[in-house]
Design brief:
alpha+beta, six-stranded mixed beta sheet, 12 strands
Length: 278
């Protein structure tokens, strides 16, 4: 190609980039620079140990649903690790491999040769994680709070992601005690950006959600039903965030997935605003 033609096309590409070429907006690369908000896609999904309502155990199906949602961070509930009923597969590790994400697992119950609990997936490195037992009343299923510290580009502080699954019984005493325990865990970290994500087994306006609202911003003002999966009528899966003044809710939606689990996934798109100058 003639030299002048090459120069012309290089000049033209400068104008075409990126929309006309179908490439990523270079403005997105500035997300998280000093003084700029950081946008995060946050997914909560109770995966029912990857057994769908069609009776099929299919971890790859779950991984596909997660990948198509393109989340930055994910909280998963009802996850098996080396449990016989799910083929003795290390589900957290396998989901991390299939989605190409980092993983942390918090096992709360010994089950069929393995462990059962919550997991976190993250597009960004998980620098530390710890699992805490939540209050247990009347010999119920042991519940836990998995706390993961994540290095998110553009954040001075690590993002604290809390993944949990509260008690399901009609009596709400344990759920309320768990909500208080969660609030106590974060009370001394008032300025650290944090997300509380999971199956809370309770609804808008309940004592459980009202207790959490003392420290957390609810990302859904009106219910977005997640169960029963075929025709949802109640929202029990939530994404909450703190400190409330630093988060902006861009969008929250329940994904149109009604087979792979007995819950529908819920996806929140949030922006973390810069910390106000002291």
């Amino acid at each position: 190609m003639h030299y002048r033609a090459i120069v012309f096309w290089v000049w033209m590409l400068g104008f075409l980039w990126p929309a006309e070429l179908g490439l990523a907006d270079p403005g997105l690369a500035n997300r998280g620079l000093a003084g700029e908000p950081v946008r995060l896609r946050v997914l909560s999904y109770n995966i029912h140990h990857a057994e769908g309502i069609d009776g099929t155990l299919d971890l790859e199906r779950i991984a596909g649903i997660i990948s198509r949602a393109a989340p930055d961070v994910v909280a998963l509930q009802e996850v098996d690790s080396q449990v016989r009923r799910s083929g003795s597969v290390d589900q957290p590790a396998e989901l991390a491999r299939l989605t190409e994400m980092h993983v942390a697992f918090g096992g709360n119950i010994d089950l069929q040769g393995g462990r059962y609990g919550n997991a976190v997936l993250s597009r960004f490195p998980i620098q530390a994680h710890e699992n805490h037992r939540l209050p247990n009343f009347a010999d119920g299923e042991q519940r836990g709070l998995l706390m993961a510290e994540i290095d998110v580009p553009g954040l001075e502080d690590r993002l604290l992601l809390l993944a949990t699954h509260f008690d399901h019984r009609r009596d709400d005493r344990e759920r309320l005690a768990s909500a208080k325990a969660v609030n106590q865990r974060v009370a001394e970290q008032a300025q650290q950006p944090a997300l509380l994500v999971g199956d809370l087994n309770d609804v808008h306006g309940s004592p459980t959600l009202e207790e959490l609202a003392k420290q957390w911003l609810h990302t859904t003002r009106e219910p977005l039903p997640t169960i029963p999966v075929a025709t949802p009528t109640r929202q029990i899966d939530f994404v909450l965030c703190r400190p409330p003044q630093r988060w902006k809710v861009i969008e929250v939606q329940v994904l149109d997935e009604a087979v792979a689990s007995d819950h529908r996934p819920i996806l929140a798109v949030l922006e973390l605003l810069p910390e106000a100058p002291q």
